[in-house]
């Protein structure tokens, strides 16, 4: 059936993207914003930024790319283990999945809480005199007040504008002087700031970060120009990228009554209305030690971190609790929903099908772990079901895979996607992809597929121990989205316990409903698109409030 668009969503899309071409202009929800390496994305049709990370981070965390809608890119462009671990990698090839089940993520890590409510996680790593220092706030774009989309990301920018003690960009200049690295990122569920420096500078980083936790100085002279910077960022990263536009609308269709349907970077008209008072109010409510997690990984001991944390962060007074993170449950709408976007800049068309599914925080039992393994079976490399059947056996795709966002605070996304081979229509490719998924749901997976998927995920846990920054991200992102330390540390044993029947049941339970389908077309595909593919504006009776 033709999907009748909720009137508010329709108005928003027309306001943001203007007139319609062949199909619907689309946009890409930003799941995290940060700096990364420039990499070719099969789903954007253009070149975009992808953060290089380890396999475990891609599977445990909510994902690492500029836009959550294109996080599937991380699965296509799989990043190998860290340099120096090739011998370990060879050893994993001969081992079975059970050999990795006893891995404890984080080694001999420890945790404690300061009197002001700041949670602290310490992950010792003595291999080099370096530390990664991260502060995570339990607030993201999904926590923004109605009509103020983009304020979480905007405040992230403003946090680099200085305090009385460290005015302007003093903080960043100091990090550069000592040869360190810094960055920050905003997602739907958290905002994080980090520095990587020599161990002797850890106390200094704590002092400066604690200072901007309570003493940020903002004026119109600072806020208004930075607002223009954010608007330009959106124009460059979203509005000028067909794949990003498609992903943004896909998310809006998946989460029509949930804040995950609003892009992290915000809608242009709402960004333009943000002001100094909005930023200060958001800062005062959420940037407090009792709403934050400090993660320190590297050449330190728990006692050293505790002493430094008490001397710096311990002096920051706790403020009123920001309130419960209560959001409406994402509703699965009936009927078939499709969106198609054509753009002459697209030289690599693609097809995506997505469902709303439970995350680790919302799933019953080990349901999320089963979905992780399902995603690995379907799209985990050249031996996966989708790649083998669509690319190798049938030759209808040049690449194919799947992506599951397991680490969200609320229900999240499961996606399958493919790039068509020459001569294959996007609709035909979509049907072929669903056929693969439906056979898994009805017939299950083989013992060999399950073992291969487990070994892939669990060996990633082994590789993660080689990266202090990856471990810091795993703990920070998981703890800010409802996870516990024990759940993180025991994740390998959770994966190892999943059976083939669990994976089959997950596919049947969560992917049986009709998906939201998105097509990204280049000039050639636009000419072949069905004439009635454009959506129609609904009558008032179909209005659904977000």
UniProtKB/TrEMBL annotation:
Q: Where is the composition biased (Basic and acidic residues)?
A: 316-329
Cofactor(s) listed:
Zn(2+)
Q: What one GO molecular function would you report for this record?
A: metal ion binding
Q: Which residues cross the membrane?
A: 60-83
Q: Which residues form the signal peptide?
A: none
Which GO terms of type biological process are on file?
A: proteolysis
- PROSITE patterns (alphabetical): INSULINASE
Q: Which Pfam families match?
A: Peptidase_M16, Peptidase_M16_C
Identify the InterPro entries for this entry: Metalloenz_LuxS/M16, MPP/UQCRC_Complex, Pept_M16_N, Pept_M16_Zn_BS, Peptidase_M16_C
Q: Where is the Peptidase M16 C-terminal domain?
A: 274-457
Keyword set, alphabetical order: Hydrolase, Membrane, Metalloprotease, Protease, Transmembrane, Transmembrane helix
Q: Annotated region Disordered: where? A: 316-345, 524-546
Record domain Peptidase M16 N-terminal: where? 121-265
Family, per the entry?
Answer: Belongs to the peptidase M16 family.
Output this protein's name: Insulinase family protein
Report the source organism. Stappia indica
